[in-house]
Amino acid sequence: MEGEQWSQQKPEEADDALAESASAGGTEQAADGDEEKPAGGVLAIALMVSMLGLQFLKRLVTKPAMEKRRPAIAAQPCPCEEAKQTAPTTPELESETLEIDTDAEVARRRKWGTPLVLLAFAVGMAGGVGFMFLYWTGSGNRLLGGTLALCLGGFGAVLVLYAQWMMRRELVVAPREQMPSSGDEREGALQVYSSGVRDVQRRSLLKWMGAGAGAIFAAITFSLLRSLARVHPAEALFTTVWKRGERLMTTGGKALTVDSLHVGSSMIVFPETSIGSEQTQTVLIRVDPRLLQLPKDRSNWAPMGYVAYSRVCTHAGCAVGMFEAHSNLLLCPCHQSTFDVLRGAVPTGGPAARPLPQLPLYVDKNGNLCAQGGFSSPPGPGFTGMPS
Amino acid sequence: MIKAVGGWLDTRLGLAKFARKAMDHVFPDHWSFLFGEIALYAFVILVITGAYLAMFFNGSSAQIVYHGSYHALDGVKMTAAYRSALLLSFDVPAGLLVRQMHHWAALIFLVAILAHAARIFFTGAYRRPREINWLIGLTLLVLAIVNGYLGYSIIGDLLSGVGLRIGYAIALSVPVIGPWLTYTVLGGNIPSASTIPRFYSFHIFLVPALIAALLALHLAIIWRQTHTNFPGPRRTDRTIVGSRLYPTYAAKSVALFFLVAAVVAMLGGLVQIDPIWTYGPFNPIAVIPGAQPDWYLGWIEGAMRLFPGINLHFGRWLIVPEVFFPAVLMPALLFLLLYAYPFLERLFLPADKAHNVLVLPYEQPFNSAFGSAVLMFLLVLLVAGADDVVAVATGASVVTIRFLLRILVFAAPAATAALVYAICVAMRRRRAVSQVLEPLEITPSQTVERQP
């Protein structure tokens, strides 16, 4: 009875096994097509999906063949009996081997398997030889990748075909070792532990010494970690090079005058000593002074409609690289925060919560644009303790 | 030969006892069990290709001028790291192939981990006795994401620089310890001279060593506990059905390694990924519109875009910056929930016994609904991470797209959960009805299950 049930189950099992390796083999074909990087994730998921698809196809293709074989096995009185004779299992493992294949089937498959295996091997070798040739003749990436894939895929196919066509397929039932130990074993372990503890003299002394050693190691680790911060955060986060009298310079190192910009245009500026630096980068914009709505205490920060703001986004620190003249908005391209240039660069959209720090300006006696002092608050993304 | 070598080893290690047991170790045959193996082999490929790349890559922030066969960047000042990445891409034979294989293998590693985790979750394989492996597996996912980020951050092109800058802002946003944490890890403000060398050492040593150690533990535990089985004849909590390790399963598994490697080689050769020469070296004042991280970080990027500008103040002092909520708190809570899931579930399920036979997704509607909702949540966030690209593609404004996504990020998971729950319940009922109506048609599984 049991054997009969098994024989009905088997074709499905064999199907699964077949399909499993087929699905792995099929992934190669799905690799073609996509060319762009952002599609990488999609492509990889497509790989998985196509594996499933191929496994389904394979199932469709192989099913009739398996069904033909079914009566042949079912006709046998009990295949597991025979299996025990051909592949005896040791009594202590108590596992049961349930052969799927008769010797005739194995022989029949071998006839077809041999040429298939040889074909796959030839593909693999050809790919390998091709790779070597292309490598030493200095060929490009695509051909190298293609031939390497042929080589690896060919050898992979050899093993799949071997497992499917040249090996006896089987199904095994084995007992699982149950994880929990028996009550006696647990008791025994606990007893050994307790008696070991009892044998140790002055246990509290040992505990205190252990705590002391732990504390000193923690302190050492902390000291070592402290050296990893090469700069004190407070120094770096709160200071910029901008100070009173610092002239606004272009990236090319030219000082800017009151005539440098037209209304509605913008420019990246730096203090003279740190041109090109991350933290001090500033955007200078000239707007119509009549439109400005700066806070009262900033009324003299924008001579002739020149306003200057930190160019480091207060949200995630990207360079706020775009200025829209018609709406007077600064836009950060990373997360699309917008800042109103006319109103002290307060955020008007996107995820930013704090305005861009403003650089107070004045015009010196030579007509150069200069900073009155540092930014209105520390530039860059937020941190605990940042004044605003 | 085997007899001689085996005998020599057995005399010293008593190997025969273990080998006998190991070769008879039973592995279930089901395609969904391959995801974990694919992840394992992707990791092996990552180590092999990574070791080769390390022969050429120079993890240094020193500024030098590039002179090489890529003429568009000739004479440009850049980090030694970026220069060596360009050299290995253009002047080392097959260097570009290996670099692209490395990147593709990383993506496949992460997809496979995710698929594996989903299979584990939706079939209830995380339950007793396998909770420890669930925790280790989630940790491996986190480490894989971290190492992916480190990997593309060390190249030193503009794209990686933007990613580094956003990472800096995220680390800085952690309340109270943020500034010290950031400066301890990065050495100083971005771009600090210490950042690339440290990230390189994390990327090729610290994190891979952790991954390898946890992977070994993961495999040792599953070897000890043996795999789960899908429900079927003779498959009970006390038995395992499948094929033995030697020879069939071993042949198939080695075949899978070759096939995964073949796919990676094909992708690495034919499908361009991360063309590092496009944007040139990192420049603090330059910007790239429409830039996205690799997909496995896209969901955090999306959350950063959707989260409104809300932060916590104390007087005029900032306490919790706005970036903290979507980029640190949300992922932390999500992973905490996933870590705790097997234990939270115990509060609502009665019996605590070993689960070795898997539960089909429709037989546990709540579980399936929760899992699909989480996946849908991540999917919406992933789309949000490219909302500017979506806006350009659809012609709608970013503001509109973002408004819709802010609704969808809650509505879509809720709807998915409801739908999946309803489908599962319906399927379960239909199956129950069909079992009542066809009592005479006894399937093999039913008879076998009644056996003691």
Radius of gyration of chain A, whole Å: 38 Å
What strand order characterises the main sheet of chain B?
A: 1-4
What best-fitting shape of chain B do the alpha-carbon axes yield?
globular
Q: State the shape of chain A.
A: flat
Helix and strand content put the structural class of chain A at alpha+beta
Largest interface: A-B, 120 and 129 residues
Write the layout of secondary structure elements.
The complex is a heterodimer of chains A (about 400) and B (about 450).
Chain A lengths: L1 H29 L9 H35 L4 H8 L9 E4 L3 H34 L4 H26 L3 E6 L7 H16 L4 H24 L6 H6 L26 E5 L12 E5 L19 E5 L11 E3 L4 E3 L6 E3 L5 E4 L8 E2 L1 E3 L5 E3 L17
Antiparallel strand pairs in A: 1-2, 3-4, 4-5, 5-10, 6-7, 7-8, 8-9, 11-12
Chain B lengths: L1 H12 L1 H9 L2 E2 L6 H21 L8 E3 L11 E3 H11 L4 H28 L8 H23 L4 H15 L5 H9 L8 H31 L13 E6 H26 L24 H12 L5 E3 L2 E4 L3 H23 L18 H20 L2 H8 L3 H40 L6 H7 L2
Antiparallel strand pairs in B: 1-4, 2-3, 5-6
Helix pairs in contact in B: 3-5, 3-10, 5-6, 5-10, 6-9, 6-12, 11-12, 11-13, 13-15, 14-15
If you had to describe this structure to a student in words, what would you say it looks like?
The complex is a heterodimer of chains A (388) and B (452). With 388 residues, chain A is α+β, with helices and mostly antiparallel strands. Chain A folds into two domains: 2-173, no CATH class; 241-371, Rieske Iron-sulfur Protein, CATH 2.102.10. Helices cover 46% and strands 12% of the residues of chain A. Chain A contains eight helices and twelve strands. Chain A has a four-stranded antiparallel beta sheet, with no helix packed on it. In chain A, strand 8 (338-340) and strand 9 form a beta hairpin. In chain A, helix 1 runs antiparallel to helix 2 (40-74), helix 1 runs antiparallel to helix 5 (141-166) and helix 4 runs antiparallel to helix 5. The longest helix of chain A has 35 residues, at 40-74. Mean pLDDT of chain A is 81; it is low at 1-38 and 60-93. Chain B is mostly helical and 452 residues long. Chain B folds into two domains: 30-359, Cytochrome Bc1 Complex, Chain C, CATH 1.20.810; 362-452, no CATH class. In chain B, the strands form three sheets. A two-stranded antiparallel sheet of chain B has the order 1-4. Strand 2 of chain A pairs antiparallel with strand 4 of chain B, so a sheet runs across the interface.
